[in-house]
Write a structure and sequence with these properties.
The protein has about 325 residues and is an all-beta fold. It has one domain: Neuraminidase (6 Propeller), CATH 2.120.10. The chain has two helices and 27 strands.
């Protein structure tokens, strides 16, 4: 069941991603600070490694952090600053989240990171230079929801519930998870530099549902109360009360925000709001559809950066901009 109230808003076609070489599948994609789309491709035979999962003692299935074997990938850039493809011969991360780095490099981060019995964490974050060679790797924690890099190269990581409370060997009692604050900034050397601390009277992050690094400011929406939060360049925190629950994407344009998605039956909702005093005033709600009016498939990937929403339906790139609704 999906959200059927309100008007329909078809997404616009923006293009089609084609593999840079025959036999490659689209593995991952990310939006950079200038809205360049970075796509990561891998051979079909390596998809099993790139999307490897494991069964835990309780019988649950979770994604792995490290792939069972290193595999070749090709990164392609699409948008205002296209550039030649980058070949990485030995990526060893599962379910990599990718972001462009200043100077033409690429950051790849696995969403899961196991703390081993010897107390050492898996190295599940890798920075590659502009020619695809590994420059450094490290650990930015487990339970990663999203990673975005600012124009100056600040690496901001948001975490879902298990990354905050502890899982995969991390524990509040023994080895606190790196993501226990829910929102953490790392240096270019993958060292923690800043941890989110809620203002007085606000609850801490239990699960960071949505994040958007706009310029050098960090925007987020998180459980349990789902406020809209802006951490400015000087790390000052501004908050707005928000009555909508569970949005998985956040768009920002001056005093306007867009809340994308939500828990069923609001998977395909887009709510447009205005930052009004200390609250978000929702001005309109609509249901996102394919350009032909069809329902969005369940397996689309939605990316939010600045005021832009990009939806990947297979290799087809769809999207809209928040400024379209001014």
């Amino acid at each position: 069941m999906q959200f059927h109230a309100g008007p329909v808003q078809p997404l616009r076609r923006r293009g089609v991603l084609g593999p840079p070489e025959p036999g490659l599948d689209l593995l991952s994609a990310g939006l950079g600070p200038d809205l360049t789309l970075v796509a990561l491709w891998a051979a079909h035979r390596d998809i099993a490694a790139a999307r490897a999962a494991e069964e835990l003692e309780d019988g649950s299935i979770v994604a792995r952090g490290r792939a069972p074997w290193a595999y070749r990938t090709v990164a392609t850039w699409h948008g205002p600053a296209p550039r030649p493809a980058m070949i990485i011969e030995d990526l060893d991360l599962a379910f990599p989240i990718v972001q462009p780095m200043p100077g033409g490099g690429l950051l790849a981060v696995a969403s899961r990171c196991r703390l081993r019995e010897d107390g050492m964490a898996e190295r599940t974050a890798s920075v590659y230079g502009p020619y695809g060679f590994l420059e450094r790797n490290g650990t930015v924690g487990d339970g990663i929801e999203d990673v975005q890099v600012s124009p100056r190269g600040r690496i901001v990581v948001s975490y879902f519930g298990e990354g905050v409370s502890g899982a995969n060997g991390w524990s509040q009692e023994t080895t606190p998870p790196l993501g226990q604050a829910g929102l953490v900034e790392f240096s270019a050397m993958l060292t923690p530099m800043w941890h989110y601390a809620p203002p007085r009277g606000m609850a801490p992050i239990a699960d960071c549902y949505a994040m958007n690094v706009v310029g050098e400011s960090i925007w987020a929406c998180y459980a349990a109360d789902f406020p809209i939060v802006c951490v400015d360049e000087q790390l000052g925190v501004i908050t707005w009360q928000n009555d909508l629950r569970g949005a998985s994407g956040l768009l920002v344009s001056a005093s306007r925000v867009g809340l994308v998605g939500g828990e069923e039956p609001y998977d395909d909702r887009l709510a447009i709001g205005t930052l009004d005093g200390s609250r978000v005033r929702i001005d309109r709600e609509m249901r996102l559809t394919l350009p032909d009016g069809g329902e969005l498939p369940r397996d689309v990937q939605a990316l939010c950066r600045n005021d832009r929403l990009i939806v990947l339906d297979g290799h087809e790139v769809l999207g809209l901009d928040l400024v379209d609704f001014n």
